[in-house]
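Usage

Read records sequentially. Each one opens with the input sequence:
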Amino acid sequence: MSTRHSSEFRRPQHSLFFAVMVPTTAVGAISHEFNHLQTQYPILKKRIPDDRLHLTLLNVFAADHLPNEIVQMSLAVGNAIRFVEYCLRLDRVLSYRNRQAEQPCVLTADAVSSQTSNKLANQIRRIFEVLSGHSMRRNRPINPHVTLVWDKCSIPSQFIQPIELPVREVTLIHSHVGKSRYEILGRWDLVPRQ
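and closes with the structure output:
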């Protein structure tokens, strides 16, 4: 696969993925942390809006056209998810380095909740493979994180006051790339803790 120069990179118009949306109960703590960062670093961009704060579990598809059969298969996968509710604990902030002008500043999860998030992502991946009959190409562990902002300012890795994020549902999101618009195509409750 050839590597494109960053100035030639063009993102596809549509993206479909399974995610955990940040519940409103955690938005206040996230806003507080972002405001604190702004007092320490020259962040110029606005934080990602509340209704788009999320943790990606599994990227399903990305292209300039989103086929209906991919959407229907993904909805069937969502209907088959059986996973117990858990709590995601965000305890570190940092900027991921990349070759683009702007870098994502993210909140990352601690080891225990990262492991649980990976188990959920793996379950979704396995269901997808069983229902579709095809192996998904990407099978490496995810690094659970919530992106706060894309900015030229690079934030060094540092611990924060932990933010508890209850994970009670999984969503299927259709992102209209470049238009700052998420369309939630499905929501599935996780199994309540006994």
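Summary fields computed downstream for this record:
- Residues 2 and 83 are 39 Å apart (CA to CA).
- The chain has a mean pLDDT of 90.
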